[in-house]
Amino acid sequence: MMSFCHSIINISCVKSSWSNDVRASLYSLMVLIILTTLVGNLIVIISISHFKQLHTPTNWLIHSMATVDFLLACLVMPYSMVRSVEHCWYFGEVFCKIHTSTDIMLSSASILHLSFISIDRYYAVCDPLRYKARIGVLVIFMMISISWSIPALFAFGMIFLELNFKGVEELYYKHVHCMGHCAVFFSKTSGVLAFMISFYIPGFIMLCVYYRIYFIAKGHARSINDANKNPQIGLEEKNGISRSKEGKAAKTLGIVMGVFLICWCPFFVCTVMDPFLNYAIPHSLNDALIWFGYLNSTFNPMIYAFFYPWFRRALKMILFGKIFQKDSSRCKLFLESNP
Questions:
Q1: Residue 205 located in a structural domain
Q2: What angle do CA 35, 84, 38 make, to 5 degrees?
Q3: What is the pLDDT of residues 205-249, one digit of tens each?
Q4: Which range of residues forms the domain containing residue 298?
Q5: pTM, 2 dp
Q6: Which phi-psi region, left, alpha or beta, contains residue 56 (left: φ > 0; alpha: ψ -120 to 50)?
Q7: In a domain, 13, yes or no
Q8: 269-289, pLDDT tens digit by residue?
Q9: 7 found inside a domain
Q10: Count: domains in the chain
């Protein structure tokens, strides 16, 4: 039997017809994703905030991204979970706009942070001698400001001014909108704009940076192999340490790029194509794909933190409560070089 989100049947959305077992499984999976995202990003935030040795420009950029991902899990995912499982929105139209705007803002901000981190790593690997002069506190502050402000202006401006469905208002209100509905709806123009700002431009930057770092690291690896025939052992060791960092940076960015594309590409491709396909893509598919996008925020702390020994040491100190000991913030997590 068909059930509805609200009592006024002729204007209400249709509720999901899943069994209680399916709903319980979906709720359990989504709660696990939310908790993992919250805990992982909270540990990154605490680690970088507490340990003075981690107070570097690069780490403040990672700290800002972890804050974005933490807020996404805290403010957006729980309401998205109810909407995804029940196919109903119970929290009112005004809060729907706030939720949708915050969702777009934080998801876009997380992606922009990834692109700026890749730029930071590019200069650290490819121009290490001038890295500190080029990427200072002011530059990092500007990156963080851009990563927050542009998505905020774009998301809240578009949703509250209803620019996302400008030109297709009649189609939206006659055939899409119903009581209990809360999903972002794009026209052709706004869909392409959202695709460019939130996905294509930051993704293209990351791809170009990774391509450049990969080939520089590959070229340096070849030069090390050639240098092995040279008896200048001391120089080899010094170069070997430097080149191993380049290789690690290339590998890490490669994983970042792969996870980013796997998580967000399906959602944004469907979003930009849907208006051109006369909105033929099922709403349930879009809803599932947004959760694949959310997973990027779950994996971010694992990629940028769990790969580094300093994070594992910080995690151990946090779990055992050692951060509450006197002068624990001055504890050395790594030798005096870039972590």
A1: yes
A2: 15
A3: 999 988 888 777 777 666 655 555 555 544 444 444 455 555 666
A4: 21-323
A5: 0.89
A6: beta
A7: no
A8: 999 999 999 999 988 899 999
A9: no
A10: 1
d(CA 130, CA 133): 5
Alpha helical stretches, state H, the chain: 20-50, 57-71, 77-86, 93-126, 131-134, 137-160, 169-171, 188-195, 201-227, 233-273, 283-304, 309-319
| The length of the chain, given as a count of residues | 339
Q: For the domain that residue 114 is a member of, what is the CATH number?
A: 1.20.1070.10
* Per-position DSSP letters for 84-121, written without gaps between them: HHHS---S-HHHHHHHHHHHHHHHHHHHHHHHHHHHHH
126: amino acid identity, one letter? C
Residue 94 in any domain: the answer is yes
Hey, CA dihedral for 270, 41, 308, 137, is it positive or negative?
A: positive
Q: Which two three-digit tokens encode residue 286?
A: 């879009």
Within its chain, how far is the Cα of 27 from the centroid? 22
Residue with tokens 């706004």: 190
Handedness of CA 84, 86, 87, 92 (dihedral sign): negative
Closest CA to 329 of 32, 24, 47: 47
